[in-house]
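$ ./design --mode recover --in tokens.txt
reading tokens...
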């Protein structure tokens, strides 16, 4: 039975066992279709063979449904209820758990509230360091108790690890030029290979010692549920492990934990990722495993880039979901590069903000030289958009001529698009502009954070006296600002609000203040991008 036909039949509540809900919600992943029916969940496997997962026949899908229930009962025994047949009767009616010809199978689950997921709780600011440390200890206990064998140990061998890692490149090569640039793909592949080879002795030693376990394999934020009001072990529920390929489960537990660490980092919760790793390594008594953390973090980022790329290409997935998957795939490529690249080459977005003559451009030029940033200066881009030479005088009254609101909007839009293109290549970008109002900064910050790129906002400050002297001394500069423009800009300054992944740093550029460049470089070093 064709997937779309089966999906259409299962969109109706009467196709499911009682008690029936008023409507059926449908969610798709790259390999499954999930039907939410009241407080029950029915998960159908797509008839696909993607190489790493083979659900191409009815028999294979049935087997994998039973495996999913068996394996997931390790961490969520109350959630996984069993496997039900999908049937078609003599009149052609399709039903779950009905009578007639068996056309497929579904995994039957109890629904757990989305509000309890680690993903949702993070978005709501409801996750503490203590929460992730408790999760780390629970996972350590799971990993300690997980099955071990010679066959499982082979899953953690260097040949298997390297094969899994390299497979991501082979299976995403067709997306080069679309979801990832040719240059970025080549950099990630080369640096990933270098990291693999550097860690080979340790990987082989751990496999020989029996460190690999039958792990979860897909520790993502939306698969972890926290119920602080419940007593252990019911306070932490983890669903949706990898059942379709033992090669992805049979692994060093460090690789398993790294999935969750990568997911936290992708949402700019680096502190929580560090707390998770620290608590887990301590609970496992496994300090040597920390040397594999970066390798496995990058591997998990590549896995998600691949999976989201597949989802973005599936015609049955709604267009809005495909577009989101495309953006996630691009961001995970950038995250993989950030993890593998030397600090001074990691992608980063820097914004230098402040009133005219506050020292933004001086700082920007110095950072470009000292830290390898490409500079986009609003004064120059504004004039180029107007067909003017950057040094041509275009002085106008406030808000008129090339400084009219619509021209300013076009300037910021152009800078943001140029910054995005550079970041997608894995480069480092500095935008030198006034950024007086939050609505000017927010789109840049949202763009970079969605791409998993860290953002640093340097706000340059100088006294009115210093500013007036600098404006009077200006000559042969792209800026047309004068004292009146400064006064208007300073009066309309809006302080920046905090956001995950964004660091706001105020720098004095007064002649007698500590060196602004030195302070800026120290902050970049603290963010791991220098």
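writing sequence...
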């Amino acid at each position: 039975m064709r997937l779309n036909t089966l999906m259409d039949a299962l969109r109706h509540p009467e196709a499911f066992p009682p008690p029936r809900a008023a409507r059926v919600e449908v969610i798709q992943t790259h390999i499954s279709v999930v039907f939410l029916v009241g407080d029950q969940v029915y998960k159908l496997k797509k008839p696909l063979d993607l190489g790493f997962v083979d659900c191409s026949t009815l028999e294979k899908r049935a087997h994998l449904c039973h495996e999913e229930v068996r394996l997931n009962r390790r961490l969520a025994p109350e959630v996984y209820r069993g496997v039900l047949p999908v049937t078609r009767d003599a009149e052609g009616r399709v039903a779950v758990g009905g009578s007639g010809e068996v056309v497929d199978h579904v995994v039957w689950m109890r629904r757990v509230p989305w509000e309890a997921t680690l993903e949702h709780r993070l978005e709501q600011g409801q996750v503490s360091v203590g929460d992730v440390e408790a999760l780390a200890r629970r996972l350590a206990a799971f990993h300690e108790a997980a099955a071990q064998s010679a066959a499982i140990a082979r899953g953690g061998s260097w040949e298997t690890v390297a094969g899994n890692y390299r497979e991501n490149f082979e299976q995403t090569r067709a997306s080069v030029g679309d979801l990832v640039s040719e240059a970025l793909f080549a950099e990630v592949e080369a640096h990933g290979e270098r990291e693999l080879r550097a860690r080979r002795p340790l990987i082989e030693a751990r496999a020989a010692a029996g460190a690999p376990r039958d792990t979860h394999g897909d520790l993502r934020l939306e698969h972890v549920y926290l119920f602080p009001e419940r007593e252990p072990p019911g306070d932490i529920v983890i669903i949706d492990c990898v059942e379709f390929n033992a090669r992805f489960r049979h692994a060093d537990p460090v690789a398993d934990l790294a999935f969750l660490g990568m997911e936290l980092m992708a949402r700019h919760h680096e502190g929580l990722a560090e707390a998770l790793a620290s608590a887990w390594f301590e609970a496992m008594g496994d300090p040597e495993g920390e040397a594999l953390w970066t390798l496995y973090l990058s591997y998990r980022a590549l896995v998600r880039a691949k999976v989201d790329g597949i989802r973005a290409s599936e015609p049955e997935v709604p267009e809005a979901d495909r577009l989101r998957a495309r953006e996630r795939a691009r961001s995970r490529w950038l995250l993989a590069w950030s993890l593998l690249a030397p600090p001074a080459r990691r992608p980063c977005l820097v914004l230098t903000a402040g009133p005219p003559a506050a020292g933004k451009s001086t700082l920007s030029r110095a950072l470009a030289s000292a830290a390898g940033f490409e500079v986009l200066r609003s004064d120059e881009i504004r004039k180029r958009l107007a067909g003017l030479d950057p040094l041509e005088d275009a002085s106008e009254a406030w808000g008129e001529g090339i400084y009219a609101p619509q021209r300013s909007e076009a300037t910021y839009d152009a800078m943001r698009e140029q910054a995005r293109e550079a970041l997608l290549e894995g480069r480092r970008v500095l935008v030198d502009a006034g950024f007086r109002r939050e609505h000017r900064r927010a789109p840049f910050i949202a763009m970079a954070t969605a791409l998993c790129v860290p953002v640093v906002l340097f706000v340059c400050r100088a006294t009115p006296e210093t500013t007036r002297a600098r404006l009077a001394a200006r000559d042969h500069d792209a800026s047309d600002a004068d004292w009146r423009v400064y006064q208007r800009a300073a009066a309309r300054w809006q302080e920046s609000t905090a956001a995950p992944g964004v660091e706001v740093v105020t720098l004095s550029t007064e002649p007698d203040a500590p060196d602004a460049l030195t302070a800026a470089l120290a902050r970049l070093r603290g963010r791991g991008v220098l």
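exit 0
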